[in-house]
Specification:
The protein is of the alpha/beta class. Among the domains are: 118 residues, no CATH class; 140 residues, Vaccinia Virus protein VP39 (Rossmann fold), CATH 3.40.50. 46% of the residues lie in helices and 10% in strands. The chain has a 5-stranded parallel sheet with strand order 5-4-3-6-7, with helices on both faces. Strands 1-2 form a two-stranded antiparallel sheet. The chain is globular, with a radius of gyration of 29 Å. Its EC number is 2.1.1.319. It catalyses: L-arginyl-[protein] + 2 S-adenosyl-L-methionine = N(omega),N(omega)-dimethyl-L-arginyl-[protein] + 2 S-adenosyl-L-homocysteine + 2 H(+); L-arginyl-[protein] + S-adenosyl-L-methionine = N(omega)-methyl-L-arginyl-[protein] + S-adenosyl-L-homocysteine + H(+). One of its GO terms (biological process) is methylation.
Length: 438
C-alpha cells in the first residue's frame, strides 16, 4: 500500500477539534519529544542470535544473509496477514527455533495459536512495522530506526489500520451473504441433478467432476459456513451411528491408513484415530478445513491426522494407497448431494487391494405419511391468505421436497425398501450403476 499523502494527513488532522492548551499538555509534549529522541536509538534484536541492529531492514538483511531465513518470503509464501506476521515473529523468538526448521514448513503453521499474539520481546520493533509496506518493498534501509512511524505519520498509520479492519469486517459480511446465496444455488443444482439422474445414459461421467467452476464453488462454499456442520453433528442418529460402528470395530481400524473424503469438522477422522488408526488423511475443499485443523490440535490428534485442503480429485495424498475410506457422503434422499461420485473416484484411485469403504451399503425406503397439521401449514394455507385466494401457489409448493422430522404417529404405512445399493468397496459399483438404480 502506498504511503498516505500529506493531503490525507491534513484531512485527518482537520477532523480533530482544537483543544485548550495547559501546563499538563506542555508536559505531554515534552514527554512525546523525549519518546521521539529515544526512538532514534532503538535497537532491533536478531531473531536467531544475540546481535542487534539499528533498523528493521538491516535486521531482515542479516537474517537472510547470516541465517538463511528470508522473512519477507515466509510472509508471502504462507500468505500471512498482519496477525499472522505478528504470531510468526513471536513464535520464532519464543521457540528459539533455527533457520533450518522454518525452511520446510508445510500445511498447518506452528504459530497459529493465539498465545503468539503476546509479544515475546517487550516493545519489539519488528512488531511495529506496516506489513503491507513491508511486502510492497517500501521499507528501505534509510527508514526510521526500528521501522517505527513517527509523529503525524503514526496517527495516519493507526487510522489506516482501523480502516483496514473495517474493510475486513465488511468483506466478512459479504462472504456470509454469498454463502447463503450459494446454499440456495446448491439446493437448486442438486435437485436438478437428482431429477435428471434417471435419464442418464451409460456414458454418464462423474456428476461432481462435471460441475462448472462457479457451480463447484457454490457447492463447497455452502460447506464453509458452520451452520451445515452444526446441523449434521446434531443429527445424533447419523453421527452416533458412525461413532458406534467405528468404536465398536477397533480390529478393523487398528494400525490402518484411513482416508476421510469431505472431512468437514473432522469428526469421522477423530473417531478413526481414537479407534486405533495408524494414520488418517482428511480432505475437504471448503473453508471449514481451517477450523478442523484447530479442532484436531485441540484434541491432541495432530500426530495421527493430516488435513489437506482441496478436492479429492485434485490433491496429492502423502501415501500411494489407503486401507479404509470413510465419508459422510449421504445427502437428503441418499443421493441429494452427488458426493458419492467423489467417494467412488477416491476408491478407484487410492484404495488398496482388499480395502474397505464405509458406509458400504445403503437403503432407500418410502413410507406414507398423514400429517394434517403440516398439510394445513404448507398446502391448505394458500386457500385463504388474509382473505385472498392463492391456490395457484400450491402448484409450486407441492412438487418441492421438504426435509422434516416426523412424529411416529404420522407414519401410516410400513416402510417399503425401494433400493439397496451394492457394496461401495466393490469395483463393480459405478456412478452409472447407482443412477440406474433410481
Amino acid at each position: 500500500m502506498a504511503e498516505p499523502t500529506d493531503t490525507y494527513s491534513t484531512a485527518a488532522d482537520d477532523e480533530v477539534p482544537d483543544l485548550l492548551h495547559s501546563e499538563e499538555e506542555e508536559d505531554d509534549d515534552e514527554q512525546w519529544h523525549c519518546m521521539e529522541e529515544d526512538a532514534d536509538g532503538v535497537s532491533v534484536s536478531c531473531l536467531f542470535c544475540q546481535r542487534s541492529f539499528s533498523s528493521v531492514p538491516e535486521t531482515f538483511q542479516h537474517c537472510q544473509s547470516e541465517h538463511g531465513v528470508d522473512l519477507l518470503q515466509l510472509v508471502t509464501t504462507h500468505r500471512l496477514d498482519e496477525y499472522g506476521y505478528i504470531k510468526m515473529i513471536n513464535y520464532i523468538r519464543t521457540a528459539k527455533c533455527s533457520g533450518d526448521s522454518l525452511a520446510g514448513l508445510g500445511g498447518a503453521l506452528p504459530w497459529d495459536g493465539d498465545e503468539y499474539m503476546k509479544p515475546a520481546l517487550p516493545d519489539d520493533p519488528l512488531l511495529l512495522i506496516d506489513l503491507e509496506d513491508l511486502i510492497g518493498g517500501e521499507m528501505k534501509l534509510d527508514a526510521a530506526p526500528g521501522g517505527q512511524v513517527e509523529g503525524k505519520d503514526q496517527t495516519t498509520a493507526l487510522l489506516r489500520k482501523a480502516q483496514q479492519a473495517e474493510e475486513r469486517a465488511e468483506r466478512s459480511e459479504e462472504a456470509l451473504a454469498r454463502a447463503m446465496e450459494d446454499l440456495h444455488k446448491l439446493k437448486v443444482l442438486a435437485q436438478g441433478l437428482v431429477l435428471s439422474a434417471g435419464r442418464a445414459g451409460p456414458s454418464c461421467s462423474g456428476a461432481v467432476a462435471e460441475l462448472q467452476e462457479d457451480e463447484d464453488e457454490a457447492y463447497f462454499s455452502s460447506y464453509g459456513h458452520y451452520s451445515i456442520h452444526e446441523e449434521m453433528l446434531k443429527d445424533t442418529v447419523r453421527t452416533e451411528s458412525y461413532r458406534d460402528f467405528i468404536y465398536g470395530n477397533p480390529d478393523v481400524f487398528k494400525d490402518k491408513v484411513v482416508l476421510d473424503v469431505g472431512c468437514g469438522t473432522g469428526i469421522l477422522s477423530m473417531f478413526a484415530a481414537r479407534s486405533g488408526a495408524k494414520k488418517v488423511i482428511a480432505v475437504d475443499q471448503s473453508e471449514i478445513i481451517y477450523q478442523a485443523i484447530d479442532i484436531v490440535r485441540s484434541n491432541q490428534l495432530e500426530n495421527t491426522i493430516t488435513l489437506i485442503k482441496g478436492r479429492i480429485e485434485d490433491v496429492d495424498l502423502p501415501v500411494e494407497k489407503v486401507d479404509i475410506i470413510i465419508s459422510e457422503w449421504m445427502g437428503y434422499f441418499l443421493l441429494f448431494e452427488s458426493m458419492l461420485d467423489s467417494v467412488l473416484w477416491a476408491r478407484d484411485r487410492y484404495l488398496a487391494d482388499g480395502g474397505l469403504v464405509f458406509p458400504d451399503r445403503c437403503i432407500i425406503s418410502l413410507a406414507a405419511v398423514g400429517d394434517t397439521e403440516k398439510h394445513s401449514d404448507r398446502i391448505a394455507f394458500w386457500d385463504n391468505v388474509y382473505g385472498f385466494k392463492m391456490e395457484c401457489m400450491k402448484e409450486v409448493v407441492i412438487p418441492e421436497a421438504v426435509v422434516e422430522v416426523l412424529k411416529p404417529e404420522t407414519v401410516i404405512s410400513e416402510p417399503a425398501v425401494i433400493q439397496v445399493s451394492k457394496d461401495t468397496d466393490s469395483s463393480t459399483l459405478t456412478l452409472t450403476v447407482v443412477l440406474n438404480m433410481i
